[in-house]
Fold this protein.
Amino acid sequence: MTQTSPAVSFTGAVKTYGAVRAVDGVDLEIARGETVALLGLNGAGKSTTISLLLGLHEPDAGTVELFGSVPERSVRAGRVGAMLQEARAVPRVTVGELVSFVASRYPAPMPVARALELAGIASLAQRRVDRLSGGQTQRVRFAVALSGDPALLVLDEPTAALDVEARHAFWDSMRTYARRGHTVLFSTHYLEEADAHADRIVVIDRGRIVADGTGEELRRSAGGNLVSLDLAGRTPDGLALLPGVRSVEVRGDRARLRTDDSDATVVALAGLGAVHGLEVTPASLDDAFLALTSHKPSHETETV
């Protein structure tokens, strides 16, 4: 292990369950100090990827390393903290007792008061864990993940069950932690969270990484702009063949064209006399995500 080795390294990692290749040849490297979001549809392979990273499962092929060594070694050394979706409340134990117990298992833990403060639950230290609301329980899980002051923090859907105010408070805490040079990997279904809080966004689909870059890079890769227009009684035939157009979606009497070159697309529409209710907007991260995880053939027209 060297101080220059990446925090996370997947090389050709494969994990199968029967005939299903949940992780299918994943190559991924995360540098120390990076904050990376992992996105994917349900069943895309996110959870299996995280389980390989944490050493909960071993790859059938390829390798997974944390800080230059096998995951189990880094986890045992206290270099990894994880906040997972699947967790049961411990009965008859207070929040402070739980976080203190977990912290005591690490070689250089974070002060318990600091972990509770970062998680926004200092006022709940004397409350029993099994009597908390869903959102409060989620923040306890965050405090537990922080308790060892890990170099790598892994968060699986960290803001599930949190209201809007609590979500903002959580991300403020996460950014504070990341600014200290820690590495953070989080999965989320809230695409705006990935766009706002990650240095990089990795999209996984059918066990493979289909995109890796900033939110802006992903938007450009999926088609930089959307051109919308009223069909005004016209059929959408031929729209998919216009310059720059990647795909066409028809909703009622309105068509949405995903395009790499909106200027060329608009000029071509004008040449057809098809400029009615024209609107040009940048593709959102939601649009990019749907384009990256869509399994329709290219240039297929979808009618809704």
User: Anything to note?
Assistant: The radius of gyration is 23 Å. The chain has two domains: 8-217, 219-303. Residues 8-217 form a domain with the Rossmann fold fold (CATH 3.40.50.300). Confidence is low (pLDDT under 50) at residues 297-304.
